[in-house]
Amino acid sequence: MSQYLKEIEALNSVVGANKTWHDINPESAVRMRLQNRFKTHLDIAKYNAKIMREDMAAYDADNSKYTQSLGCWHGFIGQQKMISIKKHFGATKGKYLYLSGWMVAALRSEFGPLPDQSMHEKTVVADLIRELYTFLKQADAWELNHLFRALDDAKAAGDEAKQKEIIGKIDNFETHVVPIIADIDAGFGNPEATYLLAKKLIEAGACCIQIENQVSDEKQCGHQDGKVTVPHADFIAKLNAVRYAFLELGVDDGVIVARTDSEGAGLTKQIAVSTEEGDLADQYNAFLEGDEVTDPSQVANGDVLVKTNGKLIKPTKLSSGLFQFRRDTNIDRVVLDCVTSLRNGADLLWIETPTPNVAHIKHMVDRIREQEPSAKLVYNNSPSFNWTLNFRQQVFDAWKEEGKDVSGYDRGDLMNAKYDDSELAAEADRWTQEFQAKAAREAGVFHHLITLPTYHTAALSTDQLVEGYFGEEGMLAYAAGVQRKEIRRGIATVKHQDMAGSNIGDDHKEYFSGEAALKAGGKDNTMNQFG
Predict the structure, then answer these.
(1) What's the pLDDT tens digit per position in 422-458?
(2) In angstroms, rounded to a whole number, what is the distance separating the alpha carbons of residues 83 and 275?
(3) Which of 156, 235, 484, 517 is an S-S bond match for 509, by CB 3.0 to 4.6 Å?
(4) Catalytic residues, which ones?
């Protein structure tokens, strides 16, 4: 007997034992249970942590099994993404959601659009996670509702084979609820503040939290200038805070992504507290730019002196009070950051890079893996990169090194549309297409994400509609440019009433009121025009 029928049978006994429940249909109640399989969002966090750990183990065994996500700034966007994934690929395995701090700042703050500098209300991060999962749960209810209606039609037609087929689909239904990698920025304060916010994110459903090693009150977007990192002890305290939050809430296998901004960060706000030569703090301080002090006359009022690497140095201090790192230390700092994070509770690494270059990422990961062989990355396929220009320049450089004639190309002007149909452009597009698989295979990238793609797609699609609708096309811009494409592509939102839950509500009304239910989906509902 199928699981669906077993559950109806079990609930039939419960309902039958209560004489006043004579209007309750056990099958309807089972359907409602199946449409709400996650009773709390903490259940979601626990469920997805297990999935993510399984995916990480699968990648360790076979690096072609990398995972992917797109950043979503609204629950509806996340929902439509997962519906499309199921439609096009049949399963959600290895497909996550990313919650971008950049998009929260730019799109969800009550202050209005903000730069990615942790100025937005920190509670909106948890709010968006909760919203995303609310919409993903509704996608489950929506898809199952269509299966239940199809089952009722098959019953009415007396088609037993069809009934068996549909019940099989119900028994094997795959949820739209997938892991979210949630950006907690630099923790929004001290370790206690980080712990409190991490709890909110986990209670909202997050199984994976990403945290970066910047100073919380100086935080900058990873692709902006002026980034300031913290000593390792400060960052370890925040890693511990996130782990304690997971353990307190019973998500024992919660995942922490430790991000280092050290490749692009040349500043630190404080000098690390070292107690003995060669300790972690001493290694951090050894990267500081400064002059060796051999005579007290070299020391001016207000100067700070540090003993590191067996030398007494006067670190370069800026007028802002920040200290400067030596410019040639960034990669060494990245490696130390990553090794230290993995040895202090982090599960995955994030290295923010200036360009998407597999060889460059591999160079750093190879050095990390010399000390931590299982190291693997979450990598930001950022819209801040000019992907077309980057890969055209990479191909140009590779061809030049191979001795191929590149005299027909201007390296500095490769974004020019005149090159779009060139051999170099075609090769660059191929490199772009293969970037994720190659980075997973050669550079230890377990998860590829695009932080804010749906910010750009919303702007692009709106621009296209506006140009036509307010121009000569008028209503044709919508009819042909939007609705007709929805119909041809089989996008469910063409029946927007159904997508918003109208049919689910009608069926519930029938459960509750029987034939007396006043339903919205009758013959006069214009949604019927779409078949």
Answers:
(1) 999 999 999 999 999 999 999 999 999 999 999 999 9
(2) 55
(3) 517
(4) 221
